[in-house]
Amino acid sequence: MSFAFDPAVLKLPSAHFIGGAYVETPFTIDILSPSTGEAVGAIPCAGADTVDQAVRTAREALERSGWAKMRPRDRRNALCAWADLMEAEARTLAALEAVCSSRPFAQVVTGDIPVTAEQIRFFAEFADKEGGTLAPVSTDHFGYVSDEPYGVIGAITPWNFPISMAGWKLGPALAAGNAVVLKPSEMTPYSTLYMAELAVRAGIPKGILNIVLGDGPTTGAAITGHAGIDKVSFTGSTRAGGAIMENIARSGIKPMTLELGGKSPMLVFADADLDLAADCLDRGIMSNAGQACVSGSRMIVAEEIAGALADKLKARFARYRPAHTLAMQPGFSPIISEKQLSRIDSIVQAAAGQGAEAICGGARFDCDGSYYQPTLITGVDAESPAVREEIFGPVASFQTFTTEDEAMALASHPTYGLCAGLFTRDLSRAMRLTRRLEAGTVWVNRYGRSRDHILPTTGWKSSGLGSDLGREAYRANRRTKSVLIDL
């Protein structure tokens, strides 16, 4: 197999990044390649003392640099220069991501990095365009609402899209004038560390962006429970989000943004364009091998077209072939770890034990690395683990309906409400059902985000609190102050 670059010459940043410099502590966590299962490096795990050092450094940097108080246009310019550097260093960034993640090198170069740079520029433009408001008070008063940064944001990002998720957290937080202490996933740390290096090179003051490495129970808990963290932003599982809420409640009240799990339905009506629907359903579950919170893992299809659509999906699923994330041409992504692959397979087998049938897939690929076959499961009901649990893999359930009300009942999930897809040529139906679907985002005749970064992503039910992306994400990184002056 030909690689896009020589991994033997790749320099892996393997220490915490605090105050604009690498801070080394003993290595305790091995970093594995999901493409091969082999170790590629190791990182330390930050304890409470290292996290405290990062928080104090962030606070001091805010005071020393005046990042929050500088001319907003200067903050905007520094962020745009950072985005430019990310694009200029795209191949290095992509290599650092692909070497240990599920993201293929070529997709990171052409997709993740330019989109993330674009989002950072999007948020940078809010710096000198969003401000307070004049309040309509009586004529003998002068009232206004100002907004100010929180101070130090504690951010925790997942392993499935390391660069993208770091951009989601850092873009609005930095544009709003905050400093950040960010913990990337202990499985995929390298690209986030290099992003922090590039931020300093771009002119963002040292100490405004700090990266601490480690796991959730130790490092993540130290961040969310730290008294010097003014707000927490987290993307990850619903279970982990609940643990973060508990930790914050024990250590003191502070605001939080949580983008959590999903079990998103994709509804296909009989009048839909079947080829369009099949393409969208395919991408909706197979992108990143289903390792995305927005994955469309529940297919809900009108009974009269179910057989034809299932055949189209099986044909598309059969085309996927595993490929190393460093390969010249991207292929089907690996599952991030053997532990996660075993969990995926256990849910598939549990569903089969309850009478479900995998009409394609249903097992790991016969190759090196952690790869699972694209899988479509029929014969399920609401109690099936294939319908109930977030699988986070290339596995979708397939159910049928005969009426709109039945479709809505199947689409409703007791736990999750992140996204939903709807396929129909009937505009009235589309408008009617988008109101009924219990989800923070609904896509009609498509599945997945566009590059219209103004649209926020919001979780309903246990899929989250607050918003990432959009104007809402910028505003969520600033707090309001009401002022009333007697004249």
Q: Mind summarizing the main beta sheet?
A: 7 strands, mixed
Count of helical regions: 15
Strand content: 15-25%
Radius of gyration: 23 Å
Mean of residue pLDDT?
96
Shape: globular
Structural class, please? Answer: alpha/beta
CATH architecture of the largest domain: 3-Layer(aba) Sandwich
Strand order of the largest sheet: 14-15-16-13-12-18-19
Per CATH, what is the topology of the largest domain? Aldehyde Dehydrogenase, Chain A, domain 1
User: In CATH, what is the homologous superfamily of the largest domain?
Assistant: Aldehyde Dehydrogenase, Chain A, domain 1
Question: Low-confidence parts, pLDDT < 50 over ≥5 residues?
Answer: none
Q: What is the CATH C-level name of the largest domain?
A: Alpha Beta
> How many individual β-strands?
24
Distance between the termini: 76 Å
Jot down its keywords.
2 domains, alpha/beta, Aldehyde Dehydrogenase, Chain A, domain 2, Aldehyde Dehydrogenase, Chain A, domain 1, 21% strand, 487 residues
Structure description:
There is one protein chain. This protein is of the alpha/beta class. It has two domains: 7-260, Aldehyde Dehydrogenase, Chain A, domain 1 (3-Layer(aba) Sandwich); 265-458, Aldehyde Dehydrogenase, Chain A, domain 2. Helix content is 37%, strand content 21%. The chain is built from 15 helices and 24 strands. It has helices spanning 48-65, 72-88, 90-98, 105-124, 162-175, 190-201, 216-224, 238-251, 274-286, 306-317, 338-353, 385-388, 404-411, 427-436, 470-475; strands at residues 16-18, 21-23, 27-32, 39-44, 133-135, 141-149, 152-156, 179-183, 209-211, 231-235, 256-259, 265-268, 298-302, 357-360, 375-378, 395-401, 416-417, 419-423, 441-444, 457-458, 460-461, 464-465, 467-468, 478-486. The protein has a seven-stranded mixed sheet with strand order 14-15-16-13-12-18-19, with helices on both faces. Strand 12, helix 9 (274-286) and strand 13 (298-302) form a beta-alpha-beta unit. Helix 2 packs antiparallel against helix 4 (105-124), helix 3 packs across helix 4 (105-124) and helix 4 runs parallel beside helix 5.
